[in-house]
Amino acid sequence: MKKIRCAIYTRKSSEDGLEQDFNSLDAQHEACSAYIVSQKNEGWVQVPDRYDDGGISGGTMERPGLQRLLADIDRGAVDQILVYKIDRLTRSLADFAKIVDILDNTGASFVSVTQSFNTATSMGRLTLNMLLSFAQFEREVTAERIRDKIAASKRKGLWMGGNVPLGYEPDGRTLKIAEADAATIRMIYDLYDRHRNVRIVKTEADKLGLKTAIRKLSSGCPKGGSSFSFGHIYHILTNPIYAGRIRHKEKVWPGQHPALIEPARWDALQEQLMAGAVLSRSGQGGNSDGQKKQVSLLVGKLFDETGDRLTPSHTKTGKGRRLRYYVSHRLIRSSGPKDPSGWRLPAPELETLIADLVSKHLSVPAVQTNIVSPATTEEIALIAQRMTRLSVAECSADEKTKRAVLSLIERVQITPGKLSISIAAKAIAERLAFEQECICDEYLSIESDFRLRKRGVETKLVLADAVGARDDTLFRNIALAHRYFDMIRSGKTYTEIAQAEGVSKRRIQQLVELALLAPDVIRDVWEGRQPVGLTSQWLKSHAFTPMWIEQRDLFKAL
Question: Which of 47, 137, 213, 307 has the lowest tally of Cβ within 10 angstroms?
Fold first, then answer.
């Protein structure tokens, strides 16, 4: 009789009770173990390893125990998974499809010891899918209710838990001032009022011996009591909790707790912080490491569709290269899950794109003729001459010209699909050497449509009429698809093609459908004009029709 090696998988969403000698994971394991013993005459044997995940949601595949189990299945060490209930394995229908795919490829199966169904029949699979759908629905509804409750409570100004800010202590569903730590917060605000520089505040705080709060972790180990970092000081200075307010994502509501800092003073300090950021980024010179300072030329001028300001940010590569970005302020200040509507745009490309748009606008003859009114023929010629110095060619070749162009901008508004630029009347008047009253406001606004290209967490703007860079990976995969398709037409099987090409059969199955793309779609891919969302990954993970007319309609929406 063939032995069927059975592995038991157990999971619990919360950590409550896991410290007990006999907890929920042990109860699940014992029930599954007893079921294996009852099937001993069928050749079932239990593998010695345990696969447990305590305190992890069933809505994710990122579970150590599950990943270890799937790896053992993949290498042929397990023939069957046993779970107490199907929702212990997963609460996501999409994740379950992935798990079933892995089991089918390896010839393995699974059993739920408390839910009797046979997945070999269509009715059994329907029952299973219904159970998983309800499990996923229950998880999503519960999460939605919790999010709605938190949002509603914060609108009422209630404290909804989390790390208690320094200077406060919990008081039911609100906070009260902890005078021992409140003195530290007030001192940090006083230091900023005195020096107007976060780095100096950090230095002075160290001199005064100011320390972070000491907290006890769930493990019992103490944490804190160290010097304040720059980031921690900045977070304290920008945290509305100290002005008696409660933040929820990008919105701020009046809180029910007392303010540590007068709200008017806190609001004024935010303006000072922003002005200080503009000043520190608009100067000349070098960094402390001797490298040339990279200036964020649009600081204080960029806003997204919610009115949130885009703040300069940067990161460093492994080779020490500094990469600059403009990031929606709510993505930086938020301590919880990040708002998916926030923007993260590469700074050099964005500055060049906006400078080019302004330069093109100012080079239009109608703009040069009418931007100053009234103007004589001689004055119009002089205006054209001065604007020519701000041409796109000069702007692209000369950093000084780019700075001059961007200095004319008053505000840039980024909304999905549209870029709106406002030129400052005072700045253009000074540039053209005319009185501000002579500048026509109707020629100071620029609008341009754009598309988005995603690269990891970074978003790149591509003007609607611009030709993007060709997606070489997609084009190469299309070429491979036609090669595989020709081999199939010659009579070869997927297995034979995989052996000949040195790739997996799965990859051939994924790519071969790309041979059915319409010729004009392939041409657009070659020229870099394909829809932004049309990528190799999208085509491999989504079914699309072989009908060319329907393809065009489908891809247009990407």
Answer: 307
**Residue in 441, 323, 428, 419 with CA at minimum distance from that of residue 383:** 428
SS (H, E, C) 141-206: HHHHHHHHHHHHHHHCCCCCCCCCCCCEEEECCEEEECHHHHHHHHHHHHHHHHHCCHHHHHHHHH
Q: Residue 460 in contact with residue 452, Cβ under 8 Å?
A: yes
For the segment 143-171, what is each residue's pLDDT rounded down to a tens digit? 788 778 888 878 888 887 777 888 888 88
Q: How many residues does the chain have?
A: 558
Average pLDDT estimate for 365-382: 84
426 φ, ψ (degrees, to nearest 5): -65, -45
**pLDDT of res. 255:** 85
Question: Rounded to whole angstroms, what are the CA distances from 100 to 113, 430, 447, 536?
Answer: 18, 69, 50, 24
Q: What is the mean pLDDT of the chain?
A: 80
Distances (CA, A) of 178 to 186, 213, 335: 12, 11, 22
Q: Which ranges in 39-158 belong to alpha helices (H)?
A: 64-74, 86-89, 93-106, 122-155
Residue corresponding to tokens 């070999």: 120
In the chain, the domains with their CATH numbers are 4-140 (3.40.50.1390), 168-280 (3.90.1750.20), 302-463 (no CATH), 472-556 (no CATH)
The total of other beta-carbon atoms located within 10 Å of residue 7's CB is 25
Q: Is residue 512 a contact partner of residue 481, using CB atoms and an 8 Å limit?
A: yes
Q: Check the CA dihedral 62-64-66-72 and report its sign.
A: positive
Strands 80-83, 4-12: pairing kind: parallel
- What CA–CA distance (Å, rounded) separates 178 from 255? 17
Identify which has the larger pLDDT, 419 or 248.
419
What does the alpha-carbon distance between residue 146 and residue 150 come to, in Å, rounded to a whole number?
A: 6
